[in-house]
Amino acid sequence: MTTFEPSREEGENLREQLDREAEEMGYHLNPDLDFTTSLVRGLLVNERRYGYPSCPCRLASGDRDEDLDIICPCDYRDQDLNEYGACYCALYVSEEVLAGERDLSAVPERRPSPEERARAAKALSAPSGEAFSALPYPVWRCRVCGYLCARDEPPGVCPICKAKVDRFERFL
Amino acid sequence: MGFERVEGEDRGDITLYALSTCVWCHKTKKLLERLGAKFRYVYVDLLEGDERDRTLEDVKKHNPSVTFPTTVIGGDKSIVGFKEREMKEALGV
């Protein structure tokens, strides 16, 4: 495995970009700049290594399909923000943490095991037919932010959180 | 690749399983260094093939959800995540 060291400048540039995007969408990056820049450099390493920016604090398999749920922002961010005030790696924090009204604590891993993920994927891919066929359009759900839209195909990029098309699942 | 050793006071066998990209793993490594303990660490994301599989099996024995950092102290106690107070207690400092 070759190692890649992104420069501090590359890290800071991406951090600034993510910060702007987060604020536009009502999310907040961790205000600890050194900490956040280190995490963002981890994202750059993973982007270079695997071809996608998987969570720097989780072990990626290298298989995009298998790692889809941990591509940043991960499928678990919003639940962890609600429950713990931060996502698993603490790149994103809640309003309360940002305002200093709540302390950060370790966020336990909520990502299901590989076996559980395989079972859940199977259940989703075999939806029961009737309710589906009665709708004029299928409804797609963004796994990252929960955005729903009724159209033939999901959008290429989520208009709310900018997640790519492969983060959408058939909802109805 | 493989295990790197950090010299320090002998407080039993301490192994830190970490990811090279993980800030909490780096914090845990720095904490162990600050506490002056002798330990070994490995960046599992940089391992490949059999070595990676074997190492992941070892992590799984101590932490079935295989998350990082996992610190194994004295062969049977393990600390999952960056937990300063727990670490100090486990090392008796």
From TrEMBL, chain B:
Membrane-crossing residue ranges in chain numbering: none
Residues in Glutaredoxin domain copies: 14-76
Recorded superkingdom: Archaea
Gene3D superfamilies: Glutaredoxin (3.40.30.10)
Name of this chain's protein: Glutaredoxin
Organism annotation: Methanothrix harundinacea (strain 6Ac) (Methanosaeta harundinacea)
